[in-house]
Design brief:
alpha+beta; 290 residues; 4-stranded antiparallel beta sheet; 23% helix; binds zinc ion
C-alpha cells in the first residue's frame, strides 16, 4: 500500500496509489526473465536472500487518480506515457533510431520514470520501501509540484544511458577520481539533497540498457564516461538523433562502474541567494579514496 498524500498535488490518496512502472511496460517482459532489480548498483535481495526474480516487482507511489479533482495519474498518462510509449517500444524493443521530438519524449519518459521509481515513498509489495532509509534520490517536494504545474523538470537533473552486453568485448573505462556531490542549502529555497539512481531494462540479444540519473542541485558536473563517449546524455539536452543500435556497448565491468564517478551526500554547503557551487569537481574524495 502506498497510502499518503499525492506526491504531485498533496491530495489525499486512500487507494494503493499508482504504478510507477506502467502496466504496458510489464508486457515487454512477459515470458522473459529472470530479472535482477537494482537499487543504485546493488542487487535487491528477496526475502530468501536471492536476487533473481521471475518478474519485476510492482512499484507503487502515492499519486491521486480519477477520483481526485487534479487526477495526477491521468496527467502522468497524458504527459509522459502517451508520447513516451511508442518511443520506448521503438528504442528498447525494436532497436530503431528516433529523432527530434521523439527523442525528447523518450528522454522525458526515462527521467520521469527514474525520479518516481526511487521516490522515498515508492513501495513494492515484495520488498517494501525502496527508499528510506538511505534513499538515493529525493527531489525537493516543490520540484514535483512544479513538474505537475508546468510539465518542466527541476533544474540540475542529468540522465545518461548506456548499452551493456555482459559478454561484450572489454572496453577501456576512463580514469577518474570520484566527485563528492554536496547537499546544498540556499536561503531562497533553491538547492536540496543530491542523489542518484541507476535503473536497467532488458534489450534483445541478452543486452540491457542502463539509465543513470543524477540530481546535482546548484552544482555543475561533468561525467567522465560521457567525455569518453561511452554513455549518451539524455537529459537535459537530448541528442537530435538517438540510434541505440549505434551506441557503444559496455561490457559488464564497465557497466558496474559507469555510475561510480560520483558519490552523493558527502557534505552540506550553504550558498548565498543566486549563487551556484562553482566547481563540484573540486570536491574530491581525497581522504576517503586515497
Ligand atoms: Zn495529485
Amino acid at each position: 500500500m502506498a497510502n499518503g498524500d499525492c506526491v504531485f498535488c498533496g491530495a489525499p490518496v486512500s487507494s494503493q496509489g499508482e504504478h510507477v512502472l506502467p502496466r504496458w511496460l510489464f508486457k515487454r517482459w512477459a515470458g522473459q526473465g529472470p530479472f535482477t532489480f537494482f537499487q543504485g548498483d546493488k542487487p535487491i535481495a528477496k526475502r530468501d536472500g536471492t536476487t533473481e526474480r521471475a518478474q519485476l516487482p510492482r512499484v507503487m507511489l502515492p499519486v491521486c487518480g480519477s477520483n481526485s479533482p487534479s487526477n495526477c495519474n491521468g496527467w502522468l498518462d497524458r504527459t509522459f506515457e502517451v508520447e513516451g510509449r511508442p518511443q520506448v517500444e521503438a528504442v528498447l524493443d525494436n532497436l530503431q533510431p528516433i529523432e527530434g521530438s521523439a527523442v525528447v519524449a523518450f528522454a522525458r519518459w526515462v527521467t520521469k520514470t527514474l525520479v518516481l521509481h526511487d521516490h522515498p515513498l515508492a513501495v513494492t509489495s515484495e520488498i517494501g520501501h525502496l527508499g528510506l532509509p538511505g534513499s538515493l534520490l529525493e527531489l525537493p517536494s516543490s520540484g514535483l509540484r512544479e513538474l505537475r504545474r508546468t510539465g518542466q523538470f527541476p533544474d540540475d537533473i542529468s540522465v545518461w544511458m548506456a548499452v551493456i552486453d555482459p559478454d561484450g568485448t572489454p572496453v577501456t573505462v576512463p580514469e577518474f577520481e570520484p566527485v563528492i556531490l554536496p547537499d546544498v542549502d540556499r536561503p531562497d529555497g533553491a538547492g536540496g539533497d543530491c542523489g542518484g539512481t541507476l535503473l536497467g531494462f532488458s534489450l534483445p540479444e541478452d543486452k540491457h540498457v542502463l539509465f543513470h540519473l543524477l540530481f546535482h542541485p546548484l552544482c555543475d558536473v561533468s561525467n567522465p564516461f560521457e567525455s569518453a563517449g561511452l554513455v549518451t546524455r539524455l537529459w537535459p539536452a537530448p541528442p537530435a538523433v538517438l540510434d541505440i543500435a549505434a551506441l557503444p556497448v559496455l561490457d559488464e565491468e564497465a557497466g558496474k562502474v559507469m555510475g561510480k564517478w560520483v558519490v552523493t551526500g558527502g557534505s552540506s554547503i550553504s550558498l548565498q541567494p543566486g549563487e551556484r557551487w562553482p566547481d563540484c569537481a573540486m570536491v574530491r574524495a581525497l581522504s576517503a579514496f586515497s
